[in-house]
Amino acid sequence: MSDGVGPPLALLAELTHRCPLRCPYCSNPLELERASAELDEAGWRRVLGEAAALGVLQVHFSGGEPLVRRDLAALVRHAGAVGLYSNLITSGVLLDRARLEELVDAGLEHVQLSFQDSLPASADRIAGLADAHRKKLAAAALVREAGLPLTVNAVMHRQNLERLPDMIELALALGASRLEVAHVQYYGWALANRRALLPSIEQLERATETVESARRRLKGVLTIDYVVPDYYAQRPKACMGGWGRQFLNVSPAGKVLPCHAAESLPGFDFPSVKTASLADIWYRSDAFNRFRGTAWMPEPCHSCARREIDWGGCRCQAFQLTGDPARTDPACALAPDRALLDTARENDAAAPVGDFAYRQFGTVPVGESRE
Ligand code: SF4
Ligand code: FES
After folding, report:
1. If you measure from the C-alpha of residue 130 to the centroid of ligand 2, how many angstroms do you get, rounded to a whole number?
2. Which residues line ligand 1 (CB under 6 A)?
3. Is the distance from the beta carbon of residue 316 to the nearest atom of ligand 2 less than 6 Å?
4. Quick one: which atom of ligand 2 is closest to the CA of 317?
5. What is the pLDDT of residue 141?
């Protein structure tokens, strides 16, 4: 065991990158794994067993859209058998009654459903899929009918932030117990769409007031999670609760990552569940130890009082903005590269709203290479 490192709390099982939606802020890597490269059911069963043995408590079945996997219920059942709490993170558009019954029977314990907007036409445009919003509403109703707890994930940005009050009402009407108001994070595909997505400071201030007053009003009814977006923060968030501290991500092909965007970082050879055990990877791999703890930190982080609070912010954002994943995250006002973030924010938030560049298999954003 590395000094002071305990077991991970949760496993994010990215069963597939396949997805019927084409959200312009998709956080999956630019290069998506094909179905033929995905771990098979036996491979995922082994991952779930190893995760439980390592001390993981929860598995989040995610993607892409995990419902495209026909073996999802079998994996949920196996998760329960090895003692893991299972949560399904889904767009909901493929969830029908029969599928949900199968999952409930397998022991699924929680569903997290994403919504793109409260207005159907806008929601479908953002998702890049006709009729998506109606299908999501139907999926939410099925989840509640089945008695499963529901979290609504509202991804907010410049083109829907004005409707945050309606999104809160939507979550209430759907019977959600939790609402995650998630501002878009600018890496992966979202970075290519930053100009179309980055809100203004005025929009953000209104949103923060909306959340604060809804929290007071809905105390005990709806829990609202809210994090100020990095581009307007003075200090970064502890991305993933710190590198290699709480989460393991397993990609569709079986790569083990400290976060979902880590494959974009240069100079890493992320280990695979096909060639090493999860325990070995968690405690002993270079990939997990490289930015773990505080020893790797440059100044000003190294001598900062917050170094064990935010763990230096986000390595992927540091790389996206500075070209070096070991730099201080420019989301910190103390970072030597803060001006990069300030300039991007001022330029993009002041620019006319751009069109979305939609993601789909086989495309990468303009200006990005396939290497
Ligand atoms: Fe966090 Fe580093 Fe900024 Fe301190 S200097 S607040 S540790 S990012
Ligand atoms: Fe990779 Fe933040 S998304 S460290």
Report:
1. 31
2. 235-236, 300-301, 304, 306-307, 310, 312-313, 328-329, 332, 334
3. yes
4. 2
5. 97
Quote the ligand 1 centre to 331 CA distance (angstroms): 9
Residue 366 pLDDT exceeds 50: no
pLDDT given for residue 371 in this prediction: 29
Q: How far apart are the two ends of the chain, measured CA to CA in Å?
A: 34
Asked whether 315 lines ligand 2 (CB < 6 A), one says yes
Residue whose Cα lies nearest atom 2 of ligand 2: it is 314
Beta strands 178-183; 223-226: pairing state: parallel
As a whole number of angstroms, the distance between CA 170 and CA 179 comes to 10
Ligand 2 centroid to Cα of residue 62, in Å, is 17
Three-state SS string over 70-83 comes to: CCHHHHHHHHHHCC
Q: What's the burial of 109, exposed, middle or buried (CB within 10 Å: 0-12/13-18/19+)? A: middle
Question: Could you tell me the two tokens for 231?
Answer: 């581009």
Peptide bond into 29 cis (omega under 30): no
Picking from 74, 81, 82, 73, the residue whose alpha carbon sits closest to that of residue 101 is 73
Number of the ligand 1 atom closest to the C-alpha atom of 301: 2
- DSSP states of 59-114 as a string? EEEESS-GGG-TTHHHHHHHHHHTT-EEEEEE--TT--HHHHHHHHHHT--EEEEE
For 199-213, the pLDDT digits (tens) are 888 999 999 999 999
Task: Tell which one of 243, 301, 311, 329 to mutate to probe ligand 1, the residue whose CB is within 8 A of the most ligand atoms.
Answer: 301
Mean pLDDT of all residues in 166-193:
91
- Nearest Cα to 12, choosing from 305, 299, 248? 248
Protein residue with least CA distance to atom 1, ligand 1:
312
Q: Is 181 helix (H, G, I), strand (E, B) or coil?
A: strand
Going edge to edge, which strands form the sheet with 223-226? 223-226, 178-183, 150-156, 110-115, 85-90, 58-62, 10-14, 247-250, 256-257
Q: Are strands 110-115 and 150-156 parallel, antiparallel or unpaired?
A: parallel
Q: What stretches of 117-184 adopt beta strand conformation (E)?
A: 150-156, 178-183
Query: Cα 147–152–155 angle (5° rounding)?
Result: 165
The pLDDT value recorded for residue 30 is 65
